[in-house]
Design a protein that fits this description.
The chain has about 350 residues and is of the alpha/beta class. Helix content is about 35%, strand content about 15%. The protein is elongated, with a radius of gyration of 22 Å.
Length: about 350
Amino acid sequence: MAEADLDHVLPSYLALVPPTRIFIPSEIPFEKLHRSLLEKILLLAHANPYPPSPDYQQAFWKWAINLLEGLIANDTDLEIDERIYERYTSLMMLGHSHLASFAPPQKGYVTYVWPKDDQAVNHGGFEGYHSATLLESRALVEQGTTGLRTWGASFALAQYLLENPKEVWENTVLELGSGTGFLGIVTSVIQTEYNTHTQLWLSDVNSEVIQRCWSNLRLPCNTSSSHPSLDVLSLDWSWAMPDSPEHSQACALAQNLHPDVIIGADVVFDPSLVPPLVATIKLLLSVDAERPSDRHALIALTIRNQTTFDLFMETIRNEGLIIVEKAVNTERLLFGSNKVDVGDVRILYITLGDVEDQKTIS
């Protein structure tokens, strides 16, 4: 059996895929699995400065030890390296201390990898692969915000951008609701690959999220750390509302940013935020509207509540904006494991003017 049969284990571990969802061939020899777990995961240099959360590591190594012990059976000539047991034991002790303190879920780094091209065949040292490393919360909501983790629609939009790099490689890009920075890192990788390095703006409104985003973008392991034209800013969508006291400031900011492409993922989840979000998109699209432009927004939405999604679509149309749905093959999402389940995601291409030459893709 080829070593490649276990190539998916490392990216699954780095992306915090639940161990029970990591496929291990039933006929795998003990020696191959043991060597892979020891050399590619336990001794992985990347995991020293950027380790997954301790609770995930504990669950992973418990699962791994059970697999290895099952393969040993009654063969007394085989044994598990003591370093694997030592890692698991130290994590157990840390876990008991954490539970006793009634602390919130532990933070940890998550690393998503994706192939540079279709010829990439292994993840050893990420050779042949791009990566994005993020310090994230595993809680759905932390410190009153959902922005401290990466959500499913971000993976779908990232896949779309990788398949359509012209969207961002020579354009000034502004992301709305950037969260921990995953899409920003993917965009910076595309711009770096094509050696364009056009302006890339990331934005959010929560100060903790902005700080986390900036820290992730500047991690030395991320391509974004060397991007020469990348900035993070605070952007309050409510300022774009026509009756907002800060509307004039929002207009000035839109003129200053002057984005060619606006991107955003999982930004429609609260009905009360729909009007200010749409107002922000329209304002950004309206910069120099009298001049010919292909300025547009690409918004990826996971439909969790049909009523909220319908409200967004209705508000967009009431503002005179044009919507074209774009297709993305979610079966090909390979950000860290065999498949990322993103749910029912729609990618919407939004413009101000007439788009008769566009075709809705179902």
